[in-house]
Write a structure and sequence with these properties.
Number of helices of chain B: 2
Largest interface: A-B, 77 and 75 residues
Shape of chain A: globular
Strand content of chain A: 5-15%
Distance between the termini of chain A: 59 Å
CATH class of chain B: Mainly Beta
Order of helices and strands of chain A: HHEEHHHHHHHHEEEEH
Oligomer: heterodimer
Number of strands of chain B: 9
Distance between the termini of chain B: 59 Å
Largest sheet of chain B: 5 strands, antiparallel
Helix content of chain A: 55-70%
Strand order of the largest sheet of chain A: 3-6
Order of helices and strands of chain B: HHEEEEEEEEE
């Protein structure tokens, strides 16, 4: 009895301290501020990964561009949903969740409802395996089925589900998994653009391939945080190798003053940018991104 | 057995309270999401940073030419508590919500693809979770 009391007392006191620091007479917001002060490293003026937070564009943006370019739907360039159960590690599941998400967006944009349903099921399987049932739950499944064929609604639903998954992962300090999902989506999107470029050589798609230069740099910065793990290190090495091709892409930016419409709450960025990317460059980028993708979907 | 049950109970009890801060970032994100509505589609992510009064969060993004984007930036449960500014890669100031009554969101039409840097600071609070959400027009 004495031995039990001995360790119970400090446990009790520590618990009381934490409870008292979490509760109190002030508002919830004031209490939250106090707790956050204890969590923040006040030696940094700018916070984030090395002081920066990196934003990677949604795969749907490039998929939209491809569809608008007039390119025909090409199911062959998507990852087979039948492979979903072959992905066993968390690393593989996260990357392919990103890839299948991009495929789902692509199929949806082309009104390929049967394929979209298969890709939805694949994303749902991987999301469930990863414990992301806060976002990919029965409600989402019902809403997806109810809205099948309604392109805009599906895109909103899927994007919201991915954001909810991103929220969940970050809340649970699974930031590296969130980064992998984003990486998978980006890799698949670049692969789309390269495939389309190889078939119809559209200038806007070519420009979009070149435009990935800064996004790739941001993605590498994001993944670099987690390179302690062997699988991440290999992915990072391949992305760095891809970047050597993007280093050859010339980018020129000229600032122009933006124009504000206060009533519409809109600012137009008038600045101009130009890129120069050669066919050899595109070919080399295509080969490297294909190698990265094939490793992930195999 | 009683010892292990007690230790587990202690850990669970404290985990619940320590996790409240992360949950509050989540609450802010949920509140902020009301600004990313049709015709905008979420980019599928949430960006956040825990800040003290003298700190700045720096977000790096690429906006594609021809696109229209909405940036929503929030802290706390009410609008207008987070200041955000948008710069280009040359650090030319393109926009600051401080000039528009700390507007919680703003839309940006992009002529040519460009890298942007978004800086966020708290508008008066001692500390807080800064949440940034981005949407784009299909």
């Amino acid at each position: 009895m004495k031995k039990q009391s001995f360790y119970l007392i400090p446990l009790f006191l520590i618990s009381c301290c934490i409870v008292i620091s979490s509760c109190g007479g002030n508002s919830d917001e004031e209490n939250a501020e106090k707790r956050m002060e204890n969590m923040i490293d006040s030696s940094n003026v700018t916070v984030g990964v090395g002081g920066k937070i990196f934003i990677i564009p949604s795969p749907i943006q490039t998929a939209m561009l491809i569809q608008k370019s007039g390119a025909k739907y090409d199911k062959g360039m998507l990852n087979s949903p039948g492979k979903v159960n072959s992905y066993s590690t968390k690393f593989q599941k996260c990357l392919n969740l990103g890839i299948y998400g991009a495929d789902l967006g692509y199929a949806t944009l082309y009104d390929q409802t049967q394929d979209a349903l298969l890709y939805f099921k694949a994303t749902n399987t991987l999301a469930t395996d990863l414990g992301l049932t806060n976002a990919f739950d029965n409600t989402l499944v019902e809403r997806f089925q109810k809205n099948i064929g309604k392109k805009d609604s599906i895109l909103v639903l899927v994007s919201s589900a991915y954001r909810a998954s991103n929220d969940f992962l970050k809340n649970n300090e699974r930031n590296e998994e969130a980064a992998l999902i984003i990486a998978g989506g980006w890799i698949e999107t670049l692969q789309f653009a390269i495939n389309i470029m190889n078939t119809n050589g559209n200038n806007e798609v070519k420009r979009r391939i070149a435009d990935q230069k800064s996004t790739l740099s941001n993605l590498i910065s994001l993944i670099s945080t987690y390179q302690g793990n062997e699988e991440y290190a290999e992915l990072l090495a391949k992305l760095n190798d891809l970047e050597t091709e993007y280093d050859k892409v010339e980018y020129k930016y000229v600032y122009e003053q933006p124009v504000v419409d206060e009533v519409k709450k809109n600012t137009t960025f008038k600045s101009k940018s130009e890129v120069k990317i050669t066919p050899e460059n595109i070919k080399a980028i295509g080969e490297k991104i294909a190698a990265i993708r094939n490793l992930i979907v195999a | 057995m009683r010892k292990y049950v007690t230790i587990l109970a202690f850990l669970a009890f404290n985990f619940a309270f320590i996790n409240r801060s992360a949950a509050q970032c989540d609450t802010i994100a949920t509140v902020c999401a009301k600004h990313i509505i049709s015709p905008y589609i979420s980019d599928g992510q949430q960006y956040r940073a825990l800040l003290l009064a003298d700190q700045t969060a720096e977000f790096h993004a690429t906006f594609f030419g021809g696109g229209t984007y909405r940036i929503a930036a929030c802290t706390g449960l009410n609008d207008g508590n987070l200041l955000f500014s948008v710069f280009d890669e040359q650090r030319n100031l393109l926009f600051s919500n401080k000039d528009f009554k700390n507007a919680p969101y703003w839309d940006f039409s992009v002529t040519s693809t460009m890298g942007i840097i978004l800086e966020a600071t708290l508008a008066g609070a001692h500390s807080g979770c800064a949440v940034v959400l981005i949407g784009f027009k299909p």
